[in-house]
Write a structure and sequence with these properties.
There is one protein chain. By secondary structure, this protein is an all-alpha fold. The chain folds into 2 domains: 1-63, Multidrug-efflux Transporter Regulator, Chain: A, Domain 2, CATH 1.10.1660.10; 74-136. Helices cover 62% and strands 3% of the residues. The relative contact order is 0.08.
């Protein structure tokens, strides 16, 4: 029995992306472009749809396309340690960004608080702080 195959439009629909996303992934080398039969249409398989969903899920987790390409090169399931190392690097990067966002949140919160306490002054503490970035 031959596995089901479908057009690029159907692949895009099955994977929850648009056709241009499929083409972009092909240009980036993340998804192979099937051969086009003489006077025919390229056909994709469920495996291709699975790969596209893998890429989209990875992006939602914060992986870059380069990191996903590296993970895809390990997809035979025999390289769990390498995949774990990539994920650990990503986790450290995300934690670092979260800490940076907490610092930004605190600074902005302080500015908002100082603004609400600034009833009689002419200048707004938020605008002044943004003009004088040293206060942040």
């Amino acid at each position: 029995m031959t596995p089901e195959s479908f057009t690029i439009g159907r692949l895009a629909k099955k994977a929850g992306v648009n056709v241009e996303t499929i083409r972009f992934y092909q240009r980036r080398g993340l998804l192979a472009e099937p051969d086009r039969p003489l006077k025919g249409v390229r056909r994709y398989t469920e495996r291709d749809a699975q790969r596209v969903r893998f890429i989209k899920q990875g992006q939602m987790l914060g992986f870059s396309l380069n990191e996903l390409a590296e993970l895809l090169s390990l997809e035979d399931g025999q390289h769990c340690r390498e995949a774990r190392d990539i994920a650990l690097k990503k986790l450290a990067s995300i934690r670092e960004r979260i800490e940076g966002l907490r610092t930004i949140e605190k600074a902005l919160s302080n500015l908002v608080e100082s603004c609400s306490q600034n009833t009689g002054a002419v200048s707004c503490p938020i605008i002044m702080a943004l003009l004088d970035a040293s206060e942040l």
